[in-house]
Structure formats: structure tokens, C-alpha cells
Design brief:
CATH class of the domain at 21-84 and 99-296: Mainly Beta
Structural class: alpha+beta
Oligomer: single chain
Number of helices: 20
Radius of gyration: 29 Å
Number of strands: 42
CATH topology of the domain at 21-84 and 99-296: Neuraminidase
Low-confidence stretches: 1-75
Shape: globular
Helix content: 25-40%
């Protein structure tokens, strides 16, 4: 596959991401995890970590997946015509110490949700069901207990308001090594009394399900019939006594199952072109035709029972109502408009008085517990809301962390409110063209999200404001921050963007191979690689990735933007082409040996990585099995360690009419409060840019954790476990030498990643294809590229 084909393929894949399919998969994994949590000293975890650490690791993985997918939506706030009525939120903190929210059910003015709490000392987990009464504004815990081998897998409500709980019972054996064998599950349905204090009826599902099956969804219609999806291809329909009425076959994965206001059950499935909503037709024992006009594309779509209309649905951060009779869909609000992070919404519904409720679950990792809140949303006259000055935030796609920052800012600011304009869509080129056009007109955003853009191009064209004067006027000292990180976003001594958090993009090699160096030139790197007898340079070293590695983080070695001189025909570029051509067109990385074993055996030479924490640094040194040199990417200055922004990258438009207000948001990202919030037990998301917060992170990394041995003696224990491919390693408190090494590594990085002109990439990609196909020599290819890029540089200096 050529580089151009790879780029097209990657773009096509990004367009076809099925967000809910991934989330559903996570839900399945999490359900299995919940069952594992029931095991007491059952040998499930043999990596030296406590249950607590494994639980946190899972949450971080899920958070990472969600963080990576958060930009897939197309939600957009625009100023537009002022509305006569607006939605306003009322927050109710539920003050719960729970690990997560599972399934949710609503009956009238009561919302039920199930969760689990983990007992660290006894290593046991307890399922609980909570009920929130909107009329009494009261939260209570139902007196409903389960055995340790039982878990609540789903809940629903009957027409008369009773709670229905789907229970999973797990059994297993252990072999002589403590490994789990013969894992089996059995399901039953409990119908609880009105007060939830007792079980009125139990329906055994064993006659309908095998011990290996997983129940994904459950729903109850207005007649009290139970609909149970077996996670494969069948929906079982039982009456309220457990008698099977029918089976409904489904050919596609079910995303959701919901009962409408009218009492029928609908499923959402993945169709050929979009999410399809179909009614379960009991008479036909099948699914209806697709309901038109209710869902668009494969976005993040969820469905809930409506009160004023048939269904309530959320799609890519927006809420809608849908009337099945007329086939009409009405937009209600964008979550950002009511200061709600759509990523935290666990469930939603509508009360009889027309108010909407949203149950939120915010896991920020700071205290290892979730922040659970209920939000009531009602419609009021716009004139009743205190007006604020609007600040427009423009982004191709809104960063997951910056979304949270914007919501917090809007909640806390008395004077300003940020309105988000998100440009990204399936046609990236058209979206970018519109974004660029807006920057040159009075329609420009006040704040510009530069996370996926080349800030230098915009700065050099005068589109960005210098931020140093604003820092000075707000008594913000450059010396309070890592000045090399600020420098990475300077042009001619002016600061055009800031980042709140970062990792270091680098290249590692064995110190005994390259020496204790912190940088190298392109020629030095090629001399080293050509002088080694190794299988490959990288674990995944095809010719295109190796060419990319050599050129695109080193493009300034071939272009002097001050003089306009280009040197692609100077010999080094042709040498890189010939060097890259020695490697396979495709390299899957498949090997009988793992990456760590291949590194130690000198079968591969280098590793690329984003170092984001002291703990990751410790793990990477362990991966190599000996001292590592962080040599970085090759360039003339031998300074190839790069700053990679985490948590966003923002600048202010030079044409903004609200620059002071825009800087209030920028300032919040650099504030003590926010920077200190980035300090975490595992420090795995990046380093804060403020020195004081960074030192707090280092202090936490160096603080040992202890446990007691069998004699009651205190001994140091691992803080966590990190792994990479075939290698895993227990991480203990960092030494002062390790922290000093990280400090030194951070200080070597003063350039930002990703600042390569797209047009240069296009020219080089287009002209190198004939060479890699054997149709043109390296020298001829270099000459053509020299000519084309020289013309481009002359036109754009």
C-alpha cells in the first residue's frame, strides 16, 4: 500500500468509526470485569497490583478511548438568531461514593440506577440500586442485596412502577496454578416490590440461555412483557410470568433498546448507511422497516422514553424529541449550551411537567471516585437569563479536555460565555477552507483551537495575537512556566499559542549503541543505522514510515525560510530515499519475538514514543533492559525531542473584538487551580506546564507506597504496573536520579510536533511514489522535489 493510499485509507476509516459499537464493546468488557470483581482472592490478577489499581487502569483505558473519539461528532454551537426561549440547567450533586454508574431505569418521577462499590480492604464488590425521587428531591438506596457471585446486569421498570433487575450469577473453578477454569454464567430476572425492599417474583432464564451466553439488553413494554437480547442474534420476548411469547431474530448488532411513550419497544441497529431504528413487531415476530428521519449517520446516538413526544434522543451532544406519528424530529438543545459535558451523560428522560433530566457521571481521576450529579433542564424566557459577553471558540474538532475546560469556564465566569463553532465534518478540505476563510473576515472566532493545525502558518500570516503582553498585564511570569515549552510556540520571540499539558515525542536507543547523546543530525542517524546488522530500525519499519521519520520532523534542514533557499538536491534527501527503499513496502511487525526481546537482541534499533510521565519513563528503561539515550528525531541542531500538546492548544485571533475576554479563558488553562488538577497518581496524561505543578507531580511520583508482610512489617510495594507488548514491569516510587533525568529530557524539547506545511507533504508524497515503485532514480526524484518546493517557498515567503 502506497503512502497516499495509506492516507486515504486512514481518512476513510476515520469516517466510518462506529462510536457506539466501540462503547458497546467496552460495556461488554466492563460487565465481565464487574463479574471478576466478585472473585475474592481468586487469582484473577497475578501482576502484583491491587484490585484498586486494575480498576483505575480500566477506567483510564475507557477514558482514553472516549478521549480519542470525542472529536468524532459534528455538534456545533452558533450565535445565529437570538432565541426567545432557552434551556437552563439546575444541578443536584448526589454526593455518592461509587465506582461507576451502570444501567438506569425511570418510572414516573423516580429514576433508578445501579452501581458498585469496591471494598479495598476485603477485596469485595457490592452492587447497589439507588432511587432518586424528583418530587421529594430525595436519594435512597434500595434494600436489595445480592450474594458475592451475583451482579446486577440490567434494570427496567414495569408499567406499575416496579423495578425489574436482571441478575447474573457466575461460577468457576481454579486449577492448581490458581487460574480460573470452567467459567459459567446463569441469569434470572427479579421483580421487586414497589418499595424495592423485597423480591416479589423471580424468573429463571436458564431454560432460554446457555451458560456461555451474554445478555446485552433488557426492556419492558407497557404490558409488562420482557424483551431480552442475547448478545448474538435473538431477542427473547417473555410475559410477566416468564412464559416465552416468541423469539425475534436480528441480523445486526443492537446498539440500544427503548420503549416509546406509546408503549412499543424499538431497537437501534447499525444499517448499511446509518443507524437504523426499527420497531419490534410481536405479531410478525420480527422487526419493522426502518423508521425514517429519526437518526442521521453513525454518530453517538442514544434513545430514551419520551413524555411529550414518542422518544427522546441524543446525537453527537444534542438532544431531540421525535414523534413517531408525524415522523417529525425537533432539536431541543446542545449540551454545551446548558453547560453539560455530553461525554458524562449516562441517561436522560422527561418528567410529566416537561422538564428534562440528565444523570451525569464524571470520572476525573483525581480522587479515584466518580462525581455523580442529576441535572434538571427547563425552558425559560431568554429575557430571564443574565446576559454575558459571548466569546467564540473555533475548532476543527473540539478536544475532549478543552470541552470540559469550556464548560467549567462558562459555569464560573460572571462576564463571559464561550460559544463553540466546530468546523470539522466528513469533508476535511472543505471544513478547513471555511475555517481559514473565517479567520480573514469579521466572522473569525475569538479563540482558535490549534490542536490539529500548524500554528506557525497562521502566526506568520498575522492571524494570531501575541500572548506575551496579555501575560504581562495579568502578572503572569514566564519563569513560572517551562520556558522551553513556551518557546515551542513562539515565532520571532512572540507567543502565539499555549498548551496546558504536554508529552515529549522522542526516539530512544541503547546508550551503548549511540552513546549518551541527546540529539543527532540526519547524516549521523543514517550512519548509525547503516552500520548496524539489525532486522529493522523500528518495530514497525516499512519504507514509508522510515522515510516519514527521517524527513517530516526534519523538514527545516532542507528549507531555509529566511533566505528562501531549498536543498533537497544536496545529497542527503536522495540518501534518505535510497535508505528507506531498503525496507519492505509493508511491515506488519509480526515476529516470533516480542518487542522487548527484539530490542534486547539488537534485532531492532530504535523506539519512537510519547513520554508523558515519570512512570512511563521508568517502564521504557525497563523495556530496553539497559541504559537508554533519548536521542530524538534527527535535525541540524541535534535537538530532536519535540513538544506534543496534550489537553489542547489554543491561540487568540488577531481580528478578535474580545481579546481580553478570550485571554480570560487562556489564563484559566495556565492557572494554579487547573495546573494543579493535572497532577495525578499515575501522571499518565502528560506533564503540566507550570513549574510548581510539575514539581508536585514529581513529588507524588517519588512518594513510596507501603503494605505489610505476613509478619506485620511495613514493606514498599509497587505503585502500579506498566506494560508494553511482551513486557510488563512493576513501578515503584521514582528515585531522585530518575526525576532529574526526566527534568533534563523535558528541557531539551523546545519545538512543537506537527508543524509541517500540508502542501509540502503533498508535493513530497506525490513525487516520491514513482521512486518507490522503481520508476525514477533517487537523484531525479530529489531534483523534481527541489524544483517544485523552491517555487512554492518563493511564492509563500
Amino acid at each position: 500500500m502506497t503512502l497516499a493510499e495509506r492516507l486515504i485509507f486512514a481518512e476513510d476509516i476515520s469516517k466510518k468509526l462506529r462510536f457506539n459499537a466501540i462503547v458497546s464493546y467496552i460495556a461488554v468488557c466492563y460487565s465481565l470485569y464487574r463479574a471478576f470483581m466478585k472473585v475474592q482472592n481468586g487469582g484473577i490478577y497475578r501482576n502484583g497490583e491491587s484490585m484498586k489499581k486494575n480498576k483505575i487502569a480500566l477506567m483510564l483505558i475507557v477514558g482514553g478511548v472516549l478521549a480519542g473519539l470525542a472529536g468524532c461528532g459534528k455538534s456545533q454551537q452558533t450565535t445565529g438568531t437570538p432565541k426567545e426561549e432557552v434551556y437552563v440547567p439546575e444541578y443536584k450533586d448526589l454526593d455518592l461514593q461509587i465506582d461507576y454508574i451502570g444501567r438506569v431505569a425511570a418510572a414516573g418521577d423516580t429514576v433508578y440506577f445501579e452501581s458498585s462499590s469496591y471494598d479495598e480492604e476485603n477485596e469485595t464488590s457490592t452492587d447497589q440500586i439507588f432511587a432518586y425521587d424528583f418530587q421529594k428531591e430525595e436519594l435512597k438506596t434500595l434494600d436489595y442485596s445480592l450474594d458475592q457471585d451475583e451482579s446486577v446486569y440490567n434494570i427496567a421498570a414495569t408499567p406499575d412502577g416496579k423495578l425489574v433487575a436482571l441478575i447474573c450469577r457466575t461460577t468457576y473453578d481454579e486449577d492448581e496454578n490458581g487460574e480460573v477454569t470452567n467459567w459459567e454464567t446463569a441469569y434470572e430476572v427479579d421483580i421487586l416490590s414497589a418499595d424495592g425492599a423485597s423480591v416479589e417474583k423471580t424468573i429463571d432464564l436458564s431454560p432460554f440461555l446457555s451458560p456461555e451466553q451474554y445478555v446485552q439488553e433488557m426492556c419492558v413494554d407497557t404490558k409488562g412483557n420482557l424483551y431480552i437480547f442475547d448478545g448474538d442474534s435473538k431477542i427473547m420476548v417473555l410475559d410477566g410470568n416468564g412464559t416465552k411469547l416468541c423469539d425475534v431474530q436480528v441480523d445486526n448488532w443492537i446498539n440500544d433498546m427503548t420503549v416509546s411513550k406509546e408503549g412499543d419497544v424499538y431497537v437501534s441497529i447499525y444499517g448499511d448507511n446509518d443507524m437504523e431504528i426499527r420497531k419490534i413487531d410481536l405479531a410478525a415476530k420480527g422487526l419493522s422497516e426502518k423508521i425514517e428521519g429519526i437518526a442521521e449517520g453513525y454518530g453517538n446516538i442514544s434513545f430514551y422514553t419520551g413524555t411529550s413526544k414518542s422518544l427522546l434522543l441524543s446525537e453527537d451532544g444534542k438532544f431531540f424529541s421525535y414523534d413517531l406519528g408525524s415522523g417529525s424530529r425537533e432539536e431541543l438543545f446542545n449540551c454545551l449550551e446548558v453547560d453539560i459535558n455530553s461525554d458524562y451523560v449516562q441517561a436522560a428522560g422527561e418528567l410529566a411537567d416537561g422538564r428534562l433530566w440528565l444523570l451525569l457521571n464524571d470520572y476525573d481521576g483525581s480522587d479515584e471516585k466518580n462525581s455523580i450529579s442529576m441535572v434538571l433542564i427547563k425552558k425559560v424566557k431568554a429575557s430571564e437569563v443574565t446576559p454575558k459577553t459571548e466569546i467564540t471558540y473555533g475548532a476543527m474538532w473540539l478536544d475532549y479536555n478543552l470541552k470540559k475546560n469550556i464548560i467549567d469556564f462558562n459555569k464560573n465566569s460572571k462576564d463571559y460565555r464561550i460559544i463553540v463553532k466546530e468546523y470539522g465534518n466528513d469533508d476535511y478540505s472543505a471544513a478547513l477552507a471555511q475555517f481559514n476563510a473565517d479567520l480573514t473576515t469579521g466572522n473569525c472566532p475569538d479563540i482558535i483551537d490549534l490542536s490539529s493545525l500548524n500554528y506557525k502558518q497562521y502566526a506568520e500570516k498575522g492571524a494570531l495575537e501575541d500572548l506575551y503582553p496579555y501575560m504581562e498585564s495579568n502578572s503572569m511570569k514566564k519563569s513560572d512556566y517551562l520556558e522551553n515549552v513556551l518557546k515551542a510556540y513562539e515565532v520571532d520571540g512572540r507567543l502565539y499559542a499555549v498548551i496546558p499539558q504536554f508529552s515529549v515525542s522522542t526516539v530512544m536507543a541503547k546508550a551503548d549503541k549511540v552513546g549518551k547523546i541527546s540529539g543527532w543530525t540526519l547524516s549521523e542517524m543514517l550512519d548509525f543505522a547503516e552500520g548496524q546488522d539489525a532486522e529493522n530500525i523500528f518495530p514497525y519499519g516499512d519504507r514509508y514510515s522510515i522515510f516519514y521519520f527521517c524527513i517530516y520532523n526534519n523538514i527545516d534542514e532542507f528549507i531555509d525560510w529566511e533566505t528562501g533557499k531549498c536543498s533537497f538536491d544536496g545529497g542527503d534527501f536522495a540518501r534518505v530515499l535510497e535508505f528507506a527503499a531498503r525496507f519492505p513496502e509493508e511491515d506488519t511487525g509480526e515476529s516470533d519475538m516480542g518487542i522487548s526481546a527484539r530490542l534486547r537482541a539488537d534485532k531492532i534499533l530504535l523506539m519512537e514514543d510519547y513520554v508523558s510521565s515519570v512512570q512511563e519513563y521508568q517502564m521504557m528503561n525497563g523495556l530496553f533492559g539497559e541504559e537508554v539515550s533519548y536521542v530524538g528525531y534527527p535535525n541540524q541542531e541535534r535537538q530532536g525531542n519535540l513538544i506534543s500538546p496534550q489537553g489542547g492548544c489554543v491561540g487568540i485571533s488577531a481580528k478578535s473584538k474580545n481579546k481580553e475576554g478570550a485571554f480570560e479563558f487562556v489564563k484559566s488553562l495556565l492557572s494554579d487551580e487547573y495546573q494543579n488538577s493535572l497532577v495525578s497518581e499515575h501522571g499518565s496524561w502528560g506533564f503540566p506546564v507550570k513549574r510548581s505543578a510539575l514539581e508536585k507531580q514529581f513529588e507524588m511520583d517519588m512518594t513510596p507506597e507501603y503494605t505489610e508482610d505476613e509478619n506485620g512489617e511495613k514493606i514498599e510495594c509497587p505503585k502500579t504496573t506498566w506494560g508494553y507488548d511482551d513486557f510488563d514491569m512493576e513501578i515503584y516510587a521514582a528515585t531522585s536520579d530518575e526525576v532529574d533525568a526526566i527534568r533534563a529530557l523535558l528541557e531539551t524539547a523546545d519545538r512543537a510536533t506537527g508543524n509541517v506545511d500540508d502542501q509540502l507533504v503533498n508535493i513530497i508524497t506525490e513525487e516520491t511514489e514513482p521512486f518507490f515503485k522503481g520508476q525514477k532514480s533517487a537523484e531525479d526524484t530529489a531534483a523534481v522535489i527541489q524544483n517544485r518546493i523552491q517555487i512554492y517557498v518563493n511564492e509563500n515567503r
